[in-house]
Design a protein that fits this description.
CATH architecture of the largest domain: 3-Layer(aba) Sandwich
CATH superfamily of the largest domain: NAD(P)-binding Rossmann-like Domain
CATH topology of the largest domain: Rossmann fold
Number of strands: 13
Number of helices: 10
CATH class of the largest domain: Alpha Beta
Structural class: alpha/beta
Largest sheet: 6 strands, parallel
Strand order of the largest sheet: 3-2-1-4-5-6
Helix content: 25-40%
Distance between the termini: 20 Å
Number of domains: 2
Length: 270
C-alpha cells in the first residue's frame, strides 16, 4: 500500500481526494495526513476522515512515514518544505512547478535527491503531451512554444490586471510573451504549466510562452504545446474546465495527481 500525505487542502486537493476515493476501491493508496496552516485546522479536520491526521508542521507530516508527499499549496510551499521532505527520503510531488524556475532551489533539491534517493515527481497537470515532448527532447528539440489561453477575468490579480482592462477585453488579446522563467516568476498562480513544459523540453530560457485572454474561449482554460524537432512536430491542445473554487486553475490538475498516484499500482502501466 502506498501512503500519501498532502500539503494544502484547497480546491485542487479537495477534488483529488474525491477522485482518489472513486478510483482507489482496492485501497492501493492511503492518505495518511494533510498539512495546513493553523487557521485552517478546524475546517480541515471537519472535512476529512478521522483516520487522516491534520498537522501544521512538516516534521509532523514526515513522522507519519508517507511514501510520497504531494504539494498542493503554491510555489512558496515547494521552497519551504521541499528540502526537509527530500532529506527524509520521501518522494515529493510538485504541482507548483514554477518554483523550480529558480535554478538555485532546483539544484539544491536535486542535490538532496542524489544523497537521499528520494525523487521529485511532476504530474502532467492540466496539459497533455508531456510524454511526447520528452520523447522529442531525446531526439533533439529545436523549438517549443506553450500557449495558455483563459477567459479575461481568470487573469485578475496578475500583472496583466495592471496593464489591461480585463473586464473590457472583447477579443483574443495576447497579455504576455516571453520565456518560461519570466512567466513562472510573474504569474505564479496561473502559469505553472509553462514551467512543467520547460522542464520536459528545452528549459526555462528556451521555452517560449504566450499568455492570452480570450472571452470566446470561456469557460475553458486552454493549454497548447507546439514543438519542432529533428524527428518531426508535436501539437497538443487541452480545453479544460476551470476549478469551481479557483478559476485560475484547471480541475484537470487534480485529476493528474490522482492518475500519477495510482498508475504504478496497476498491472498495466501507461
Amino acid at each position: 500500500m502506498k501512503k500519501v500525505a498532502l500539503i494544502g487542502y484547497g480546491s485542487i486537493a479537495k477534488l483529488a481526494f474525491k477522485k482518489l476515493a472513486e478510483h482507489n476501491q482496492q485501497g492501493y493508496v492511503k492518505v495518511v495526513g494533510v498539512l495546513v496552516q493553523g487557521f485552517e485546522v478546524n475546517e480541515t479536520r471537519t472535512a476529512l476522515d478521522d483516520s487522516i491526521a491534520v498537522v501544521t508542521a512538516v516534521e509532523d507530516l514526515i513522522s507519519l512515514s508517507p511514501n510520497i508527499i504531494v504539494e498542493c499549496a503554491g510555489q512558496g510551499a515547494v521552497a519551504e518544505y521541499g528540502e526537509a521532505i527530500l532529506k527524509a527520503g520521501i518522494d515529493f510531488m510538485v504541482i507548483s512547478t514554477g518554483a523550480l524556475a529558480n535554478d538555485e532551489l532546483r539544484d539544491r533539491l536535486t542535490a538532496i535527491c542524489e544523497q537521499s534517493g528520494a525523487k521529485q515527481l511532476i504530474p502532467s497537470g492540466a496539459v497533455a503531451g508531456i510524454d511526447g515532448l520528452g520523447s522529442h527532447n531525446i531526439g533533439g528539440l529545436k523549438k517549443v512554444r506553450y500557449t495558455s489561453t483563459k477567459p479575461p477575468l481568470a487573469w485578475k490579480g496578475t500583472p496583466a490586471d495592471e496593464n489591461f482592462n480585463l473586464s473590457k477585453i472583447s477579443k483574443r488579446t495576447v497579455l504576455f510573451t516571453g520565456p518560461a522563467r519570466d512567466v513562472a516568476r510573474l504569474y505564479p498562480k496561473n502559469a505553472n504549466l509553462a514551467a512543467t513544459v520547460a522542464l520536459a523540453g528545452l528549459g526555462m530560457d528556451q521555452t517560449e510562452v504566450e499568455l492570452v485572454a480570450d472571452p470566446e474561449g470561456a469557460p475553458h482554460n486552454v493549454g497548447r504545446i507546439y514543438a519542432e524537432g529533428e524527428f518531426g512536430e508535436l501539437t497538443v491542445e487541452c480545453r479544460n474546465i476551470p476549478s469551481p473554487e479557483n478559476p485560475k486553475t484547471s480541475a484537470t490538475t487534480a485529476l493528474s495527481i490522482v492518475y500519477a498516484l495510482l498508475k504504478d499500482t496497476h498491472t498495466l502501466v501507461i
